[in-house]
Amino acid sequence: MFFVDVFTGLRQGEIVGLTWDCVDFDNGIIRVEKQLKRKTGKENHYFFDSLKNSKTRVIAPAPVVFDALRMVKKEQSENRLKYGSSYDNKDNLILYSLMSLADTSV
Question: CA 11 from chain center: how many Å?
């Protein structure tokens, strides 16, 4: 995910909010629709929310970003086959298990 961070200028919360349906490999674009936020006043409570202005942003990053994303997607597919139902990713680019504090229902 280093390439996504460096080559897109997205905020960390936006990167964590990316799902595979936001990535258009054919047209070379990524739609930024949501971000991970921390709930004010509640320690360790995170949730997905719309962007600050509630508008989807479309970016066209360098091809190296898509190369990196293809590798991540391949690895996730392999892990899904390997671990079966215990592989709980929720279609996020960032492994869901790393965000166990996030409430994905929002």
Answer: 11
